[in-house]
Design goal:
Helix content of chain A: 40-55%
Structural class of chain B: alpha/beta
CATH superfamily of the largest domain in chain B: Response regulator
Keywords (chain A): Kinase, Membrane, Phosphoprotein, Transferase, Transmembrane, Transmembrane helix, Two-component regulatory system
Strand content of chain A: 15-25%
Number of helices of chain B: 8
CATH architecture of the largest domain in chain A: 2-Layer Sandwich
Largest sheet of chain A: 6 strands, antiparallel
Shape of chain B: globular
Structural class of chain A: alpha+beta
CATH topology of the largest domain in chain B: Rossmann fold
Order of helices and strands of chain A: HEEHEEEEEEHHHEHEEHEEHHEE
Strand content of chain B: 15-25%
Number of helices of chain A: 9
Radius of gyration of chain B: 18 Å
Number of domains of chain A: 3
CATH architecture of the largest domain in chain B: 3-Layer(aba) Sandwich
Oligomer: heterodimer
CATH topology of the largest domain in chain A: Heat Shock Protein 90
Protein name (chain A): histidine kinase
Helix content of chain B: 40-55%
Shape of chain A: rod-shaped
Radius of gyration of chain A: 49 Å
Enzyme class (chain A): transferase
Order of helices and strands of chain B: EHEHEHEHEHEEEEHEHHEE
Number of strands of chain B: 12
GO molecular function, one term (chain A): phosphorelay sensor kinase activity
Distance between the termini of chain B: 24 Å
Catalytic activity (chain A): ATP + protein L-histidine = ADP + protein N-phospho-L-histidine
Chain lengths: ~450, ~220
């Protein structure tokens, strides 16, 4: 899953980390070099003071101890010197028993030198001529305390930086989430669309999303209109063809045909074939299948009307019942489901002795429909034939084969599965398994 | 029995009228929904056969308006629109039965007979039975204690109407309204002739005369 939120977070975090580290390191480096220049000035002053402390003695130059600063007297104080005059050297008392590393050329030594007691020394050398001799004065200062404080500053800085980064990421997350809220809302609405809990997406969205939402809504509307139009056109076509068919079928009953029974029979058979083919193809063309995402069939709302219709057609002799969880809905087009159940139940009523039952069950995200009757049932070996194209098992009860082939068309359009089983009521059980709808959102 | 047929296809209407008349029904035919809306509500029909695809006014709207206006005549929808969703819509609008085109004429006859019996509170039985008489509607004969009697078309019509309204006093006007279509000259003498012939075939006590009120079907075990 690629999330915009995570991408934005990673991008911003990475950029902030790189820039922050670069900035911190550069400012530390600038500060340290400034500090070193300042310390270099101090060391030069020290060396000049020492130069002034060199006085003319009986055997050449002499160091006037009283003019040497107290820091040089205290052992390991961190301030040291080394004076070299024509092979004669003076060392500060503070050096105690260690030696000062001497730089090869005048000026501040690039690297820090190791001093006594693991001190890191900043070493400065200056060459002078005085009293007619050339002399070299090296002064050094312990740099460890400054390094320590730098380390502390760095740690504090890092902690502060990390805190700031975290805070920024958090704020950014919040901002992004707020900015993406319309997207999230659109996502939720699309899920609702799949479940059939809404027909269109809200058009009250930010400008960036508006074309998308408008396009989806337009597409939905267009699909629905197209379906409606084609259903109307098919209805009209059916009307236009079936009314003349009805006339022809009525004409066959005329007494003129009584003298020609064979002719009447042939005509009747051919007309019946036309009628069956027409009914099947029109029925198939009417199917919505899985075109509309928002389709749903609410059992508790639709089944009572369907059962009232069936009861009226088949009379009181047949006891019809249905069972479905309250609020259970089938995520398929209403007319398709009515056509499926109507045909199956009608067929069951024609065969049943007295009882027909429908059960709608939810199973692993899909739906199972069970239609039971207490009629004679169908032998196991003939069950496959019944589902075949337009097969009729018994010409006495009309529409058996046709009804089941429409059922098969509908179930195939839904990518479901039909099984013919033995019913606990004693007759046939038609079991229809439907997978969760194509949109992926299962029944809620 | 007087029926109203609302059907815009002339050839089909011709066939249906011929067929229904042969079965002893008086049929009025209209092709336009707007005419049917008025005439269906104002004339005393016993049953209405309604096509859904009508010019002027869609059949379902027509039916809904009749029902909203308190018309209780049984309505049989005769349509090419055979999907279950449309059947349910039809019954919701107030239809009492639904026959899809194309249909066999015998099937339509049976559905009309069943609907008429049901609307008169009679059980769904193969033959119309009342007060000891059994009427065979396809043969147009009547059985009385296992003796089958042939009936003429006029006698059959009259007896069927009596048998659907046993024990009720029926005025001559009412009988005439329900036995003849809107274009036939109504002559009360014809009625009297038919009543007398029925009495001749089935016995004097079968139909009583109530002076100034009309006739009453008493049957043979009254």
């Amino acid at each position: 899953m690629r999330s915009i939120q995570r991408r934005l977070g990673l991008g911003l975090g990475g950029a902030l980390l790189v820039v922050g580290l670069l900035l911190a390191q550069t400012s530390l480096w600038l500060f340290e070099s400034g500090l070193r220049r300042y310390l270099e000035d101090n060391l030069r002053d020290d060396s000049e003071a020492l130069l002034a402390a060199l006085v003319r003695g009986q055997n050449g130059p002499q160091l006037d101890e009283s003019r040497v600063g107290p820091a040089f007297q205290q052992p390991l104080s961190g301030h040291y010197f080394h004076i070299d005059v024509d092979g004669k050297t003076w060392r500060s008392r503070s050096l105690w028993d260690s030696t000062l590393p001497l730089p090869e050329k005048p000026g501040l030594m690039e690297a820090l030198a190791n001093g006594p007691q693991a001190q890191q020394l900043l070493v400065y050398r200056a060459d002078y001529r005085r009293l007619g001799r050339s002399l070299s004065i090296t002064v050094a200062q312990d740099y460890t305390p400054i390094l320590d404080s730098f380390r502390r500053v760095r740690i504090v800085g890092l902690a502060l930086g990390a805190g700031a980064l975290l805070l920024i990421l958090l704020l950014q997350r919040l901002t992004v989430r707020r900015a993406l809220r319309p997207l999230e809302r659109a996502r939720v609405q699309i899920a609702q669309l799949q479940d059939g809990r809404r027909g269109t997406l809200d058009s009250d969205v930010p400008d960036e999303l508006e074309p998308l939402v408008r396009q989806i809504n337009h597409l939905l509307e267009h699909t629905e209109q197209t379906l409606q139009r084609s259903r109307n056109a098919l209805g009209n076509l059916g009307h236009a063809l079936k009314t003349p068919l009805a006339v022809l079928v009525s004409l066959l009953a005329r007494s003129e045909f009584d003298a020609h029974p064979a002719l009447r029979q042939t005509l009747r058979e051919q007309l019946e074939q036309i009628e069956q083919r027409l009914a099947r193809e029109l029925g198939r063309a009417r199917l919505a299948g899985e075109v509309l995402p928002g389709a749903q069939f609410v059992c508790a709302r639709e089944l009572p009307a369907l059962f009232a219709t069936l009861q009226m057609i088949h009379g009181q002799a047949c006891v019809l019942s249905w069972e479905a969880e309250p609020h259970l809905s089938i995520q398929r087009d209403r007319e398709d489901v009515l056509e499926l159940l109507g045909n199956l139940l009608d067929n069951a009523c024609k065969w049943a002795d007295s009882k027909v039952r429908l059960q709608v069950l939810e199973a692993r995200g899909g739906i199972v429909l069970l239609i039971d009757d207490d009629g004679p049932g169908i032998e196991t070996s003939r069950r496959d034939d019944v589902l075949g194209r337009g097969v009729r098992l018994d010409e006495q009860v009309s529409g058996h084969g046709l009804g089941l082939s429409i059922v098969r068309d509908i179930v195939e359009a839904w990518r479901g599965h039909v099984d013919l089983l033995d019913s606990p009521l004693g007759g046939l059980r038609v079991s229809i398994r439907l997978p969760a709808s194509a949109g992926g959102a299962g029944p809620s | 029995m007087r029926l109203l047929l609302v059907e815009d296809s002339v050839p089909l209407a011709d066939e249906l009228i011929a067929d229904l008349t042969a079965k002893g029904y008086a049929v009025d035919w209209l092709a336009d929904g707007r005419d049917a809306l008025y005439q269906g509500a104002s004339e005393p029909y016993d049953l209405i056969i309604l096509d859904l695809g009508l010019p002027g006014k869609p059949g379902l709207e027509l039916l809904a308006e009749w029902r909203a206006g308190g018309l209780s005549v049984p309505v049989l929808i005769l349509t090419a629109r055979g999907s279950w969703a449309e059947r349910i819509d039809g019954l919701k609008a107030g239809a009492d039965d639904y026959v899809t085109k194309p249909f066999h004429p015998e099937e339509l006859q049976l559905r009309i007979q069943a609907l008429l019996r049901r609307s008169h509170g009679l059980a769904n039985q193969p033959h119309l039975e009342a007060s000891g008489l059994q009427l065979n509607e396809s043969e147009q004969t009547v059985s009385l204690e296992n003796r089958v009697t042939e009936l003429t078309a006029g006698e059959f019509r009259l007896l069927r109407y009596f048998m659907l309204h046993p024990g009720q006093i029926l005025s001559k006007t009412r009988l005439a309204e329900h036995l003849y279509d809107g274009e036939t000259e109504r002559d009360s003498n014809v009625l009297e002739v038919h009543v007398n012939r029925l009495r001749g075939k089935l016995g004097r006590e079968v139909i009583e005369t109530r002076r100034g009120q009309g006739y009453r079907f008493a049957g043979i075990k009254a």
